[in-house]
Design a protein that fits this description.
- The chain has about 150 residues and is mainly α.
- The protein is about 65% helix and about 5% strand.
- The protein is built from four helices and two strands; from the N terminus they run αααββα.
- It has a two-stranded antiparallel ribbon.
- β1 and β2 form a beta hairpin.
- The protein starts with a helix and ends in a 15-residue tail after the last helix.
């Protein structure tokens, strides 16, 4: 609970960056669509979005490196709770198994990846057909006799 403010700020920074990068990617994709077509422009803009988010994730500190955690628990690369020890150093509570947390996070990311990839690959071609200007056939008008 001592790191809730820092974790909340880091979360909001990621959400804000995601929204800003999403808007920028949409604008860039729209501009690139004239040159590369909608599908390729969307892939280029999506790739740029992923790279930008990866850079932000690399720059932000990992949660195990927050000042309070380092001062009280040591230099760990995770925020997974460490075992609780009594004054003599005996473990009184084993902590949370990091593998369970890692598997949950990895499977959550994988499910999001599958969901958004399927949505993009299935609905993007359909949306392009729906949003493309309708091709009108030219009509030849019959001369009026009369």
């Amino acid at each position: 609970e001592d790191t809730i403010k820092e974790r909340g700020i880091l979360y909001l920074v990621m959400v804000a960056c995601s929204l800003i990068f999403l808007i920028v990617a949409a604008v860039v994709g729209k501009k690139l669509s004239r040159r590369f077509g909608n599908w390729n422009a969307a892939l280029i803009a999506g790739g740029a979005f992923v790279i930008a988010i990866a850079i932000v994730m690399f720059i932000l500190p990992s949660l195990g490196q927050l000042a309070y955690n380092r001062a009280n628990y040591g230099n760990f690369s995770t925020e997974t709770p460490q075992p609780l020890k009594d004054a003599s150093g005996n473990i009184v509570f084993p902590g949370f198994p990091a593998d369970v947390l890692f598997n949950f996070r990895a499977l959550s990311v994988l499910s999001q990846l599958i969901l958004w990839t399927a949505i993009g690959l299935i609905f993007a071609p359909m949306a392009e057909r729906v949003l493309a200007p309708a091709k009108t056939a030219t009509r030849v008008e019959e001369p009026v006799v009369g």
